[in-house]
């Protein structure tokens, strides 16, 4: 057993998961789990997790991406080992499915809005569409000429956007083969997020500029400049009015993407770091939009208050770069995925 301590960077109240006993959940390549939950004593519990912190292990390589399902009952994770793991969020966090379908590292993974499918982006130049219940591949999406860094599904739509080192953004109808649109970009595309409607896609890359595309015109509607290094992650806010960006200039920024906004960049959040690995570290919003978070190369997870811009949690525990985080859709639980091959689920007080 190990312990994962937390602290408030601003010197305020101690984090909700401080000194909590960790329950370790090991995955198997055959998709089964062989673990026992540990119920920890300590501070008042705030979630339905079996313990205040759950450690999910099983990946044989760096975990680049992980996300809660829309109903919060499952977690999907993707790794350098080319595996997709599906885990139960609650109970013993069983690893109920594991599959290999890509020929290269899986760099990004997302659920469809109804939770029935998974979408992946891979270094093998393809995207994948998967059955979320069985883990079986439904479709392989070919069309990119280089590494696919990122993907983002549209809400309540079969469309999927992907960004690649080939300098293009592809729009796919996941019900069929072949892309619907291909948008040209001068530099490699490292982050993509669908807008509030399926006619808008937000992208960023090595040119440090965030671009909002109008798919009806197949052209850039407007750009947002401010980052001084490569943008590694984009995430649309729950209300669809803002987008969050994380970049290698060690800042996380909040942008107004409404059509007639005057001042696009609203806030800058500092603390999280990028390292020599140059991993594409992602960011996330809480479901109520009041807090944001991202991973960091310094092996911590950072959570900020949107209202104050101050760090509320700085969560240690990982021994490698934290590449992705996500917030549970209905409970105060945070997920973190790391280059140390581990995934943590931890409860917070927000």
Textual characterization of the structure:
Helices cover 0% and strands 48% of the residues. It has 350 residues and is mainly beta. The strands form seven sheets. Strands 1-2-3-30-29-28 form a six-stranded mixed sheet, with no helix packed on it. A four-stranded antiparallel sheet has the order 4-5-6-7, with no helix packed on it. Strand 8 and strand 9 form a beta hairpin. The radius of gyration is 19 Å and the shape is globular. It starts with a strand and ends with a strand.
Q: Largest sheet at a glance?
A: 6 strands, mixed
* Strand content bin: over 45%
Strand order of the largest sheet: 1-2-3-30-29-28
Which structural class do the helices and strands define?
mainly beta
Low-pLDDT residue spans: 1-21, 29-40
Helix percentage range: under 10%
Q: How many distinct beta strands?
A: 30
Topology readout:
Blueprint: E1 3-4, E2 20-26, E3 53-57, E4 63-68, E5 74-79, E6 83-88, E7 95-100, E8 106-111, E9 117-122, E10 126-131, E11 137-142, E12 148-153, E13 159-164, E14 168-173, E15 179-184, E16 189-194, E17 200-205, E18 210-214, E19 219-224, E20 231-236, E21 242-247, E22 251-256, E23 265-270, E24 283-285, E25 291-294, E26 301-305, E27 311-315, E28 322-327, E29 333-338, E30 342-347
Parallel strand pairs: 2-3
Antiparallel strand pairs: 1-2, 3-30, 4-5, 5-6, 6-7, 8-9, 9-10, 10-11, 12-13, 13-14, 14-15, 16-17, 17-18, 18-19, 20-21, 21-22, 22-23, 24-25, 25-26, 26-27, 28-29, 29-30
What descriptors fit this protein?
350 residues, mainly beta, 48% strand, disordered N terminus
